[in-house]
Design brief:
elongated; mainly alpha
Length: 81
């Protein structure tokens, strides 16, 4: 009976770790995407991170996120016209 518990614990732990790792990787990649659109301008980097937070609050889907962030980058008030 104890061996079933050990197996179940190992499987559940592995699944949880896999989920946790995937969430972390997704957050890192989304952050890198937003920062890549900002370039080296620190004010724009802060703006893009704020826009990423807003996209997460609005629950923008993964497929739409890049276009959403690109529109936000294009609408940056500091862009030269």
């Amino acid at each position: 009976m104890l061996e079933y518990f050990i197996i179940a614990f190992a499987v559940i732990s592995g699944l949880y770790f896999h989920w946790w790792l995937m969430v972390r990787i997704r957050r890192w990649s989304n952050r890198d995407l937003a920062l890549s659109m900002a370039g080296e301008d620190q004010a724009k980097r802060d703006y893009m991170l704020a826009q990423l937070t807003e996209a997460q609050r609005l629950k923008v889907g993964r497929r739409e996120l890049e276009a959403w962030l690109q529109r936000a980058a294009d609408a940056y008030p500091g862009n030269s016209a």
